[in-house]
UniProtKB/TrEMBL annotation:
InterPro entries: FA58C (IPR000421), FUC_metazoa-typ (IPR016286), Galactose-bd-like_sf (IPR008979), GH (IPR017853), Glyco_hydro_29 (IPR000933), Glyco_hydro_29_N (IPR057739), Glyco_hydro_b (IPR013780)
Keyword Signal attributed: yes
Signal as UniProt keyword: yes
Protein name as it appears in the record: alpha-L-fucosidase
Keywords annotated in UniProt: Glycosidase, Hydrolase, Signal
Family listed: Belongs to the glycosyl hydrolase 29 family.
Length: 584
């Protein structure tokens, strides 16, 4: 560790010690301190694979987003006084934990404090907490105890930024205002005090999950000091990469070797296949993190595919629920969780304790491995012929359809063909179990081809507009990735936009499949091809909808675009697929 960072940390520790917060161990030699958790802690967490995220607080009374709606949808004064009405008399910690357990979840992460500053526990460092509400019950205490009774690992989410606290420099809405007399040094001490308090009162924790590190008051030195502070208090705890400044965008990957954090955190998207760096996708079961009336609930098929493509990429899934203001988890969300749990009771041996691969996840398939087993999860099948997987370098000794059926496998040096009669394919997920001659994890990971056969799949794309310029999450490439869970999105208030794809060589195209993620918004559009500097329409239409196929006279070109001429709101396209044949 660099001397400057060591001095920053030791100074903070000395200050904390003087206040009686904790008694640090002797650090005579810097090498005595482990910058990484014990390998067994990381292995245990990785093996659990599936956890429950909970975003909850007084904001549930309004049904708006936690933190972000302060000063936006809800005036600041009103937002900050919601706690005076917050009385979730139907909260039952044992019931929440039982729901997580029935869903097949192995750990639980609750928002101890979000960006709005409200604390869900009895904190000695602020009155803006649960004990100042009419409820007057310590949620973290009850939930941590319930988790231990039921064998679920208890974890907390804690926001680094705090738009409520007067010492934190930035305020609402969304950290875009500045407070008159901030004191960042004093705020950092508050942050250290509260995190120590949580570990002391409710630990040991499985994970302390940080967020809000992107804002400018937080520095790399702050991250190093906080990471070491937490690790000193509980050496075997896991700490995510949002404690430091290494995360880049919603893809959540840590860039650079100097940043601390035990795992990466893709948000609202399945992470990229990675066996080297541990990661965890966090995603909502509806659309909003906090509870919202009539929010759009993900289907069972969507939830299972998200889970299996995450685990197949060697990651964990932290699936979020937002309890209602009365303290109950919404019944329809509970029912969806129970459906997931029922599926996992049958096929969870292909999820828990596995590693991702060897077939990298795609829009139609994912796989995991353990010992001499490969578990293949098939979401979609080709319209004709067998399903063809890439070749692997170990012999398949046995193959079973766990979901039932008469399976035939053909293995050659060029492919692994899977034949299963259409009537025997499971409408949710077909589960195959392959037994190989060696350790399945030793098989080199291989990418799967596009099942759709679209000429546009994976090709370079660009667009006239991207939602809040979040290219990695909502960029044009998301509409040509053969993945219905991702999407190209535009800013609110956008009524015209275009999406272009470069097929990289001239192709004969006569068909397009378009999926509108939020339908129906598009009212008028054209499919166009480039001829020199000119764009020439080859199809004109009005509505698109969730899934539509359009045929037109064959044209040969390299560049095509979807030109949305009129939309009621910002267009959002899940897939833009072009079909035909390549010009050889």
């Amino acid at each position: 560790m660099r001397l400057g960072y060591a001095l920053v940390f030791l100074g903070l520790m000395a200050c904390a010690k003087g206040m009686g917060i904790f008694s640090p161990p002797c650090l005579a030699e810097e090498s005595q301190f482990e910058w990484t958790p014990p390998p067994e802690s990381l292995a245990r967490w990785r093996a659990m694979r599936f956890g429950m995220f909970i975003h909850w607080g007084p904001v549930s009374i309004k049904g708006t987003e936690i933190g972000w709606s302060r000063g936006a949808q809800v005036p600041i004064e009103e937002y900050d006084n919601l706690y005076k009405q917050f009385n979730p008399v139907n909260f039952n910690a044992d019931e929440w934990v039982a729901i997580a357990k029935e869903a097949g979840m192995k750990y639980l992460v609750i928002t101890s404090k979000h960006h709005d500053g409200f604390c869900l526990w009895d904190s000695e460092y602020t009155d803006y907490d649960i004990m100042s509400t009419p409820f007057k019950r310590d949620v973290l205490k009850e939930l941590s105890e319930a988790c231990r009774r039921q064998g679920i690992v208890f974890c907390t989410y804690h926001s680094i930024c705090d738009w409520y606290h007067p010492d934190y420099p930035l305020g609402s809405p969304g950290g875009r205002t500045r407070k008159p007399n901030p004191n960042m040094e004093r705020y950092v001490q508050y942050l250290h005090n509260q995190t120590a308090e949580i570990i002391r009162k409710y630990g040991p924790l499985g994970v302390m999950w940080f967020d809000g590190e992107w804002e400018e008051p937080w520095t790399h030195a702050h991250g190093l000091a906080l990471y070491k502070h937490i690790r000193t208090l509980q050496p075997d705890i896991l700490i995510n990469n949002r404690v430091d400044k290494g995360r880049r965008g919603m893809e959540g990957n840590t860039e650079g070797p100097d940043f601390v954090g035990d795992f990466d955190t893709p948000e609202q998207r399945v992470g990229t296949f990675n066996r080297e760096r541990p990661w965890e996708t966090c995603m909502t079961i509806c659309r909003q993190w906090a509870w919202k009336p009539n929010d759009e609930l993900k289907s069972l098929s969507q939830c299972l595919q998200i889970l299996l493509r995450t685990v197949g990429g060697d990651g964990n899934l932290l699936l979020n629920v937002g309890p209602m203001p009365d303290g109950q988890i919404e019944p329809r969300q509970v029912e969806r969780l129970r459906e997931i749990g029922a599926w996992l009771k049958k096929y969870g041996d292909g999820v828990y304790g596995t590693r991702g691969g060897p077939f990298k996840p795609g829009s139609w398939v994912a796989s995991t491995c353990k010992d001499n087993k490969i578990y293949v999860f098939i979401f979609n099948w080709p319209q004709q012929g067998p399903l063809v997987l890439p070749p692997i370098n170990q012999k398949v000794l046995a193959a079973v359809v766990r979901t039932g059926g008469d399976l035939k496998i053909e293995q050659t040096n060029t492919h692994l063909a899977v034949n299963l009669p259409p009537e025997q394919r499971d409408p949710l997920v077909t589960v195959l179990e392959l037994t190989v001659e060696g350790q399945a994890f030793d098989i080199p990971p291989v990418a799967v081809p596009s099942l759709s056969g679209a000429l546009s799949a994976g090709k370079p794309a660009k667009a006239s507009n991207v939602f809040q310029k979040r290219v990695t999450q909502f960029g044009p490439q998301m509409a040509v990735d053969d993945n219905p869970e991702t999407r190209w999105a535009t800013d609110a208030g956008t009524h015209a936009a275009w999406l272009e794809v470069d097929l990289q060589r001239p192709c004969r195209v006569n068909r397009a499949v378009i999926e509108e993620a939020y339908a129906p918004r598009v009212q008028e559009f054209q499919i166009e091809y480039a001829e020199g500097d000119q764009w020439i329409p080859c199809f004109k239409g009005s509505r698109i909808g969730e899934h539509a196929e359009f045929r037109f006279s064959e044209v040969m070109a390299q560049r095509f675009r979807l030109n949305i001429l009129k939309a009621t709101e910002g267009p959002t396209i899940g897939e833009f697929q072009l079909f035909g044949r390549e010009q050889k």
